[in-house]
Amino acid sequence: MGINSDSFDIAFTEVKKLVDKFNQGIKHYLSPSYNETEVRKDFIDKFFIVLGWDVNHDIQQDPYQQEVKVEKTQDNQKRTDYTFYLFPNFKDTKFYVEAKKPSQNLRNADYYFQTIRYGWNSKTPIVVLTDFEEFHILDCRIRPDINKVIDGFHKQYYYTDYLEKEKFSEIYYLFSHESVTADSLERYADSLPKPKGKASEKGFVKIKLQTIDEEFLEYIDRTRESLAKAFKKNDENLGSEELTEATQRTIDRLVFIRFLEDKLIEQDNYVSEFGKSNKAWIDFITACRRLDSKYNGIVFKKHFIDEQNFRGPELNEFKNICNEISHLNSPYDFNAIPIHILGSIYERFLGKVVHATDKRVKVEEKPEVRKAGGVYYTPKYIVDYIVDNTIGKILRNEDSTPLVPMLPRGNVKGKTPAEISKLRFADIACGSGSFLIGVFETLLDYHNKYYQQHKAQAKKDGCIEKDGIMVLSIKQKQNILLNNIYGVDIDQQAVEVTQLSLALKMLEDETTATANDMQVLFHEKILPDLSNNIICGNSLIGTDILSGSMFASEDERKLNPMDFETTFPEIMKNGGFDAIVGNPPYVNIENLDDITKNYYFNNYNTCVGRTDIYIVFIEKALKLLNKNGLLSYIIPFAFTNQVYGTLLRKYIIQNYKINEIVDTSDYFIFDSANVKNIIISIEKLKKSKSLTTVKRFLNEDSFVQQISYKYFKIEQDNFLSLKDCRLETKDLIKLIPIKEKMHSLSVPFYKICLIAYGVRINHKNKNIGKDYYISLNYKSGYKHFCEGKNIDRYYFEQYGWLNYKPTEHYNPMFPELFENEKLMFINVVKDRLRFCFDNEDTYNSHTVINCVRIDKLKNANHISARNILNESNLNFCKNYSYYYLLGILNSNIINWYFVNFLSESLHFYPNDAKNLPIKEINFQNETEKQAHDKIVQLVEQMLESKKQLQLIKTDKDKTYYERKCETLDNQIDSEVYKLYGLTEEEIKIVEDKNEGK
Known about the structure:
CATH class of the largest domain: Alpha Beta
Structural class: alpha+beta
CATH topology of the largest domain: Adenine-n6-DNA-methyltransferase TaqI, Chain A, domain 2
Largest sheet: 9 strands, mixed
Helix content: 40-55%
Shape: globular
CATH superfamily of the largest domain: Adenine-n6-DNA-methyltransferase Taqi, Chain A, domain 2
CATH architecture of the largest domain: Alpha-Beta Complex
Number of domains: 4
Strand content: 5-15%
Strand order of the largest sheet: 13-12-9-14-15-17-16-18-19
C-alpha cells in the first residue's frame, strides 16, 4: 500500500506550527509548573492528530470503536497514556505512547523501564516516550531490566528535528495512521538488530530477544521448582501430587494478587510486603484468607496449604520468590499482559508436574504430554475466528456463515441480553481456558455494544456509568459467566487455571471503586463460584464404565468418568449446548490403555481401527449439542482424507450441515508441531442441498487479515461421491474434470507394477559399526541398501550394505522385490513426490516403496507375487518402459493428482500409488508409441544428467547440469501434458502453486 505524499506535506506544515508555538513559549513550557496534562492537551494530542489519529474522538464517537484510547488521569503510573489500535481490531495494540512533562529529562532509567514494560508485557515491539520536546522510540523486544534499560536499540528526536523533512518523515512513515495501516510498525520491528550470543564482544550489551510468554513461562517454571524444593525442605513427607497442587495454588495466588495490585483493584502492595517479612508465609496465608472473604473463586478457596499444620516453604526461599515477582523488582506488568497470553503461558505450564522422592524434587513432563511431543497452545487469531463463527454468529442471529466473518460490525441487531442469558456455550477439553476466555470476551463485547445503543435498557439491567459511557457491572459479568460459560477437562490443574483465567478476565477493567461497590451494594463476593460451570471430569467416558466392574481406586481416579446428564442436568434436559468450541486433543488411540480404548470402540460408532481421540471428541460434541447447536473445532488436516475418519465424515455429511471448512495446511499453525490443520464448523440441523464454504489460507498473515485467500462453495452431498467421503478443500468444480479426463485415458499403476514397502528393520538394533544388519562398508554377502532419505527425483544414493537374513528382529520381503530393475519412491513427502530408477538390485528400508513391473516377477515364489501374476496380463505390462513410467510419475500432473485426490501432503502410501493414473499406450498405434518413446528418450537424458551432476566438481559445470536438468524436467512435463490431452487452461490449474503443488 502506497502512502499519500499530499498527506505528508499537510502533516509537515501542521507540525511546523506546533514547533513555532513551542519555541515562542519555550521558557514557560520547560518550567516545572507546566505539567503533563497541559503538554498533552497543547502538543502531544495535536502531534498525533497531525499524524492522522482521531485522538479527540471527533469522528469515532462510539467508545467501543475508537482507535486511540486515552488515559484521562495522569497520576496513574500503571496505565499508559495513549494506546493505539486499528479499526476493526481493538484487541491487539499497535503501539503505546507514554507522556511526560518537558521539564524532566526523558533519558531516565525509571521512565524507560516504565514505558518498555508496557510494550514488552503486551508483545508490542516498540513504544514511544515523549514530552513533545523530545520523541523517543524504545525497543520493547527485550526483557526490561532497570540496570540496563537505557542500553539497547533506541532512537530519539529533538523537537527541532520535526522541522527537517527527512527526519520528520522517519516519524511520519512509521507512526502516521496510514503508515501503521500499511504495516509500517511490523516492517520496522523486523528491521531491528537481532543480537547474537557474542554481541557483548563487539561492544554491545549482551541481550536475549525473548517475548513475555517465553520469559514468563521460564520464570514460573523456575519458581515452581524452587517453591517445590522449599516445601520439601520443610516437610520431607510431601508427595508428588501434594507438591504439584501446593506449588500451583501458591503461584496462582501470587499471580492473582499481583494482577489485583497492577490493575489498582487492590491499593495495597501485598507481595512486596511478604518479601520483607520474617513471617512471610503466615502473612501470605492471612492475606489469602482475607482476600477470599472478598473475592471468592477457586484461587483463594480454602486449601490444605492454608491449614495450620502445613509447614509451608522454607522462609528465605519464599521471601526471595515474593521479592522477585513484587512490583518493586518484577519486569512483569500484570495490567498490560493480555489475559490470553497468561493463558498461553499456563497451557504449557500445565504440561509438567512435580515429581518427588524421599529426598529430591524434580519437575518433569506429564507422560501424556511427552507422548504427544509437547503442549501446543492455540493461537489467539484461531480462537477469535472459531468463537466469532459460532458464538458471535448466534448472538448476531446470522443464518449462514458470512464470507468474511471478521469484517467490522455496525449496529447490534442480534439477540437481547435476556435472550442471551438462556444460551449455553462449552469447551469439553478446555485446557487452560483459551477458548472460554474468547467466548467470555465476545459476550462482554456484544453486551457493551448492545447497551451503548439501548441506554434505557442499560440502566434497567444494572449497567454503571464510567467515563461517560455505560459499562457492565461486576454483577452482570458474574451472571454472564454463570449463565453462559461451561468447561470440562480431565486435569484438575487445568480446571483451576481456567477458573483463574476467567476470573482475571472478569476483573480486567475493574477498579478499587467498582470492586468495593459490588460488596457494598450487593453484599456479595466479587468473583462467582464457577465450581458448577468448570468441571474436572472425563468428557468421553461416562460412569457406565463402572457398572459391574471392580476398578482399583487409583484406576478409577485416573479415568475420572463423568456423565453430562448428571453434571449439567438442566442443560441436557433442555436439549444440550448451543455451541461447543475448542481444540480437542490429538492422540493416537494406540497410545491409550486397553480399558479406555475398548470403551471408545464399544461406545462411539465412528471410532474404528487406528484412529485418533479427536474423532471421539467430535462425535461426543455433536451428541451434546441441542437441535440448532453449532460445533467448531480446529483439528488435523488428516481428517479430510484419512481412512480412519471415513465413518465420521460420512455420518456428518449425511446428518449435519457443514457450514465451513478452513484449510490452513499450507503452513503450520502450531510451533514445533508437525501437524497441518483445518477448522471445521458444523451445524446440528441439516438443510436440504446444504452448501459448504471452503476457504484456504496460505499463511498466518492472510488469515489474520482475512485477505488473499481462495474460497469456493460446494453442495455438501458432493463429498459423498468422493473416495472415502473425503472432505475436499480444493475447488472441485475446476479439478474434477481434469481428473476425469486423466482416468478416461489411463490405466491404474497397479495394473503395471507390484507396489510394496521395503524391509522393516528393527532400528533399535541398527547400530552402525557393529555386526548387526547394516554396515557402511562392504561386507561379503551383504546387499546394496538405501533408505527414504537417500532418494530424490531421478536419483538415489546408496546408504550402506544390508545383511539380508531372516531373523526374529524383522520380517524380510521376498528377494525378487529388490533383485530386479524397479522404481523406488520415498513415503514421506516434503514438497513433492520423488521417484527414482534402480538397476543395481538395491535393498531398502520400510521408508521406501518399491514398484516392480509385474512381468519381472514371473519366477518369484511368494504369495504377493503369485496373486498378482494370476490376475495380470504380462504381455501388457512388459511393453511399458520403466523410463516412461518414471517420467510420468515425476511429472507435475501426477504430483498435482496425488496432492488433490489421493492423500494429505505429508505421506504417500502404497495404496495411493496403486491408483495413480498412468496414461495407457496403444503400442499398435505409431503416434502413441512415438509419444511413449519420446518420454523414454528424455528420461534417459535426465538420468545421465543427474548422474553427471553428482560427479562434477566445478561451479560452472554444476550450473550447466542443473540448468540442463531443469530444461529436461520442463520438456518431460510438456510431453506428459500432451499425453493426457490437457488444454492451456487446464495446465494453468495444474501449475497453480496455490492449488496443491
